[in-house]
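As described in the Methods, two query proteins were run sequentially through the folding procedure within a single session, without resetting any intermediate state between them. The first query and its resulting structure tokens are shown here.
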Amino acid sequence: MFFDIGPMEMIALVILAVLVFGPDKLPKVIQDAMAFIRKVRAFSDSAKEDIRKELGPEFKDFEFEDLNPKTYIRKNILENEELGLQDLRNGFDFRKEMAEVTDAVNGTDTTAAAAAGAAGAATSTPDRLRKRETLDKDEPPPFDSDAT
């Protein structure tokens, strides 16, 4: 319940509670809050049991966490071997596809560039997507406000 609250936030909440309720009323407020939380938990547990009884014996292994869409997808679709999704997922090689897209954007061919690199020849088209190390002599720096 308090897994997402850090220690400094918890200390700040305690100090705020002492300031708002005072040190003499704080234990009573904490007891009332705990009693309220216990009643809510008991109510939700009894509601779950009533729903399980009404559903009947066909749903004896029904869990309410299964109603969460992420849990449902993981349990019924991704882990289902009959659909063959694991084979599809393993069949994609995204690095190869991204390299092909990058080469298409740059206007180079991976097989031709590899052959030219192996032969020692330089490619004739510059790579305009890469950051250059130095600027030209007359070129202003990027995002310079005086360059307008």
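Immediately afterward, the second query was submitted; its sequence and tokens are:
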Amino acid sequence: MSRTKVVPIPVMGRHNVNAYLLLGRRPVIVDAGIPGSGQKIYDQITAHGVDPTDVSLIVITHGHIDHFGSAAELHRLTGAPVAGHVADLGQYRSGRVREPYLPTGPMGRIMAHNKKLHARAEPFEPAVLIRGETNLEDFGLAASIMPTPGHTAGSVSVLTDDGGLVAGDLIAGSFMGLIPGRPANPPFHDDPRQNLASLREMLALNPTALHVGHGTALDPDRVRQWADREHDRLARLEAAGRLTMRSE
């Protein structure tokens, strides 16, 4: 089995917002940060000894502006095609997220007022449309794109053949990664129950680590314990009629 190296590319702060560089036979980028991050990601890729023009694909995990904000710019800089799930195509084509954001807790309620999260990014058209599990061997990577809906309808993760899960916002580090190693919800979810189901499906594949959009890598066993608690929390909210999710 060929080994895929997962390299975090900090976009904001030390680990507050991450993109990732996946190194196999050819490099692949996962996520593109906030608008205006393209050159920063490009420079960090170069600093890791990778020619950015060798990048074979840019995978966007979902339609939130801190993950697709610089996809168009990064495409121009590298020449690599962009992949995104068809269910988030409206966000990518418009450059705008689906409103309103649905907070998962107090931090999300505060962040929902941040004007930067409501800005318009440069739109883009994914050249590779994801509809189901998609093997990346043709792009030089021993990995697959895995649909993981819930955070948004079109959320995806990337699972390498040796067990690294680049999870986007399927799970996050606590307080946007400020507490290392502690699992938490990201600030927003469109459908918390569906997201938890997607998380458990990925955990059932026995990943070696979860590389998240906000924070450092998370230990799968610790995430499993968190998922059990989250299941109980959501059940209580649903029983009380306080579980919020986006109506399609």
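The chain has eight helices and 13 strands. We note this only descriptively and draw no conclusion about the first query from it.
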